[in-house]
Amino acid sequence: MFKKNENIIEQLETILNALRRIPRRFAGIKTATDFSQSEEGIDKLDAICMILIAAGEAFKRLDQKTEGQLLIHYPQVDWKGVKGVRDVIAHGYFDVDSEQLFNLCRDDIPILIQTVQQMIIDITKLSDS
What we know:
- This protein is mainly α.
- 71% of the residues lie in helices and 0% in strands.
- It has one domain (6-128).
- It holds the Pfam family HepT-like.
């Protein structure tokens, strides 16, 4: 798979802890327009975007560190999309599409969280063997 590295587990745990904050921030958002209808909605959008930027950057670094040999084992996630969201938000924050962000939080984040949890389990098993 790739060279075992304890630091990879630590990085995944850091990412996972951040990703787990997204459902809490997303709570109460029932439609995409909820992100723009109140100061609270805008604050939630800001917080979610910051996490997505940080996670996207972290996954880029992890992919480089593992020479592309980790993420490919988890095809249930669109890794190019995960890393690309970081660029879209970071370079076009004022153009963030609230509908896309809403769909991402509702549909993709739960799968991403589950996948990162599985990655930690799988890598931990490698260290135990």
